[in-house]
Specification:
Keywords: Disulfide bond, Lectin, Membrane, Signal, Transmembrane, Transmembrane helix
Structural class: alpha+beta
Membrane topology: Single-pass type I membrane protein
Order of helices and strands: HHEEEEEEEEEEEEEEEHHHHHHHH
Oligomer: single chain
Protein name: Lectin, mannose binding 1
Main location: endoplasmic reticulum
InterPro entries: ConA-like_dom_sf, Intracellular_Lectin-GPT, Lectin_leg
Radius of gyration: 48 Å
Largest sheet: 8 strands, antiparallel
Length: 527
């Protein structure tokens, strides 16, 4: 809207103030510098890496891993360092870079962080977020870990250096920072975007926190005025991990040359010699011919794929959101099915219990006449009624679960209703779940006994296997048998002893001595 209104504003000012000076008009027209994209200082996926694993016009070191759509500066492992730097120095004074990256990790706290550089020399490796210390230029640090314990991390810090200072990593560079802002850039739903502008000796940092897919939703972070940087330098980006680890992925690094409006913007013909242009043109034609050949070969090998759009391979934001909604509905569907199975089990148990009680009533009804039998029958009838009420409540809960399942089944088929219909289905599911919960609580309260608990009927006493009379008879028989056995065992010994005593009564040998010499008799008596 600003561009169409500009001529109208100027016309009104001219009518109101005809004597507007030329200097003021020039100052109002000087709005934004001329931007020109520099491909030799940029990279962006897809098809980011060449066949030999290198990135055109860039060099990577350390643990950096280039891929087709991004460059992973460090993996989520401890003590990792990596960096990516331009091969050639920039030849323009003012510039602007737009960097898109992701910092993801499993823990609530990450380490160490990521840095964007513009330095006079390449800092391929070092202790400052994976790059060299004592740099001559500027570094924009995205520090994840709070080393000084001030609880000001994650944060963005702008640190300048003239090639002589050592970075104070233990204090997070708090005394060396030219500007800073506290922003959380870890584990965001969308990539984090940073726009760094150096124009007329002023460095400005804008950041998109990654909460929305809008690429131009930037907010102010830091600004440093009267900052002098080298006229030529290298662009780079580095990262490092420590005791904690994060994945640091850079999706794109776009560089633009800024030219003041009063100066003529340089053309590409003035920078590229004629020989280089011819060389690049030949390379382009050669690559174009190879690409056409590969396309023809692919079409001959895969005739079924012809005519299909290539955009179907990629997932849009709306498709991803719908997929997440359907996955959540599927999980709810599985939980409710599990609840339905549990209710079926409870219902079967209650039916078995009711049938068992009914059979017990039929058995005891004929054999227990009188007042006591009537009281017992009333108690059993009360139990049966309670169980029937339980069955009825369970059936109602089952019907509620069935309604919830039908609602989910209808919500899983995307139609023209859109997001509002999906929200209505979720509300219905919540309402049914509340009904189920209320019914279960009511059922538990109803079945809880308020007074005396009902006792189960006592079992009749079991008859004893051995009576007292039988026991004494058994003991008497055993005693008689034992005495008879002893007498039977001593009978041969008594006869032998009498015969020997008659023969040897003139010798002073007694029956006791005979018994002492007869070992068999001793063993019999001992038994």
């Amino acid at each position: 809207m600003a561009a169409p209104l500009a001529p109208l504003v100027l016309l009104l000012l001219a009518l109101g103030r005809p004597a507007l000076s030329g200097a003021q008009a020039t100052e109002s027209a000087a709005a934004a510098p001329h931007r020109r994209f520099e491909y030799k200082y940029s990279f962006k996926g897809p098809h980011l890496v060449q066949a030999d694993g290198t990135v055109p016009f860039w060099v990577h070191t350390g643990n950096a891993i280039p891929s087709a759509d991004q460059i992973r500066i460090t993996t989520s492992l401890k003590s990792q360092k990596g960096s990516v730097w331009t091969k050639n120095k920039s030849i323009f004074e003012y510039w602007e870079v737009e960097v898109t990256f992701r910092v993801t990790g499993r823990g609530r706290i990450g380490a160490d962080g990521l840095a964007i550089w513009f330095t006079e020399e390449q800092g391929l490796e070092g202790p400052v977020f994976g790059a060299a210390d004592k740099w001559n230029g500027v570094g924009i640090f995205f520090d994840s870990f709070d080393n000084d314990g001030k609880k000001n991390n994650p944060g963005v810090i702008v640190v300048g250096n003239n090639g002589k200072l050592l970075y104070d990593h233990q204090n997070d560079g708090s005394m060396q920072a030219l500007a800073s802002c506290q922003r959380d850039f870890r584990n965001k739903p969308y990539p984090v975007r940073v726009k760094i502008t150096y124009y007329q000796k002023t460095l400005t940092v804008l950041i998109n926190n990654g909460f929305t897919p809008d690429k131009e939703d930037y907010e102010f972070c830091a600004k440093v005025e009267d900052m002098v940087l080298p006229s030529q330098g290298y662009f780079g980006i580095s990262a490092a991990t420590g005791g904690l680890a994060d994945d640091h992925d850079v999706l794109s690094f776009l560089t633009f040359q800024l030219t003041e409006p009063g100066k003529e913007a340089p053309t590409s013909d003035a920078e590229i010699p004629q020989k280089d242009k011819e060389k690049y043109q030949e390379e382009f034609e050669h690559f174009q011919q190879e690409l056409d050949k590969k396309k023809e070969e692919f079409q001959r090998e895969h005739p079924d794929v012809q005519g299909q759009p290539a955009d179907d391979v990629f997932e849009t934001v709306s498709d991803r959101e719908l997929r997440q909604i359907f996955e959540g509905q599927n999980r709810i569907h599985l939980e409710i099915k599990q609840l339905n199975r549990q209710l079926d089990m409870i219902l079967d148990e209650q039916r078995k219990y009711v049938s068992a009680v009914t059979e017990e009533i039929a058995k005891r009804g004929a054999g227990s006449p009188g007042q006591q039998g009537q009281v017992f029958q009333q108690e059993i009838e009360t139990v049966v009624k309670t169980q029937e009420e339980v069955i009825r409540q369970v059936k109602e809960m089952r019907s509620s679960v069935t309604d919830a399942l039908s609602s989910i089944s209808g919500a899983q088929h995307p139609g023209a209703a859109g997001v509002y219909e999906t929200t209505q289905h979720f509300n219905d599911i919540k309402e049914h779940l509340h009904v189920v919960k209320r019914d279960i609580e009511h059922l538990v309260q109803r079945n809880t006994p308020s007074g005396e608990k009902q006792k189960c009927p006592e079992l009749p006493p079991f008859p004893s296997c051995l009576s007292t009379m039988h026991f004494f008879v058994f003991v008497a028989v055993q005693t008689v048998l034992f005495i008879g056995y002893v007498m039977y065992s001593l009978l041969p010994w008594s006869a032998t002893c009498a015969a020997k005593f008659t023969v040897m009564k003139n010798t002073s040998v007694s029956c006791l001595s005979v018994w002492r010499n007869d070992k068999s008799m001793q063993s019999i008596l001992l038994l």
